[in-house]
Structure formats: C-alpha cells, structure tokens
Amino acid sequence: MAIPLEKTAAEPTNNELQRVARLLGGTRILSRHLRSALDAHELLIHGLPGSALDHLLEQLVFIQKTDSLEKAVGMSLRTYQRRKDAPSKPLNQDQSGRTWKFAEILSKATDVFGSQAEAEQWLERPAIGLDQRRPIDLLATPAGVELVEDYLKRLEYGVYA
C-alpha cells in the first residue's frame, strides 16, 4: 500500500509556480504549463529560454541591469548583451536556476510588500534584519538566498529584526 506524501512547506503551491512562470513570460515563452515543482525542475534542467530572462528584466521597474542584478542571475551585463542576439538559446542550468530563484524571491517579496515596485525597492535597500546588507546582493550565493528567503518569511509574519 502506497503512503501518500504530504505537501511540505518548501514545495511551492500551483499559484506560486504560476506567478513565477508569469514573471518569466508564461507558457508563451516557457512553451509549457507548469503544474508542479517537478515540472519546474525539468524546465530548469533543460535551461530556461534566454527570452525568459529578457521578459523578467523587462518587468522590473526599479532594479537596473547593474552588478547587483548580475550577481542575482549569475550573468555579467556583457554576457547578457551578447545573448540578446540569440534569445532562443537556453540559459545554462546555473543561470536558469538563479533566474528562477530571483523570480521566486521577487514574487514572494511582491506578496509581502503588496506591489512589485515596493518589492524591488526592498531588494535594493539595506535591510536591518540582514545586517544592513541589500537583499539583492545576497542572492549571489545559496547561503545568501536562504538568508533573504528566511528574512522574507519573518517579515511576512511580522518579525522585523
């Protein structure tokens, strides 16, 4: 008899997946509908289309294509500019994963702060709970990503320090 697996807190809901997918261009750019975290995993293994990163960057209001954003998605501005000539060429697994994670964090921050503009401004400002570091700068490493995600959870539940 198979034992049903319960959904863990870390597994994104379908709503969360759809919000992240929309930031990356939705089914039009991703060429598939994501129904589960495993669908997202498969997409990232094969590489996000370069146009998904373009779409994400076009959605940004306050964050500029600076060294901070380069740290967040793992691609220099020069490499990004070279890729513009081949938008259908997939990102590598690392760039795909980091682009997806950035979109996830932006989506979560948008929920917490009520608008994408507020979320972007929060990512760019030093945060007390992150020892006066800018959240976007911390996205350069897995440990930093975890710190930002934990801090967003604390903010969501009203624990600011």
TrEMBL record:
Protein name: Toxin-antitoxin system antitoxin component (TIGR02293 family)
InterPro entries linked: Antitox_Xre, Xre-like_HTH, Xre/MbcA/ParS-like_toxin-bd
NCBIfam families found in the cross-reference section: TAS_TIGR02293
All copies of domain Antitoxin Xre-like helix-turn-helix, residue ranges: 39-103
Domain Antitoxin Xre/MbcA/ParS-like toxin-binding intervals: 109-158
Pfam families: Xre-like-HTH, Xre_MbcA_ParS_C
Superkingdom of origin: Bacteria
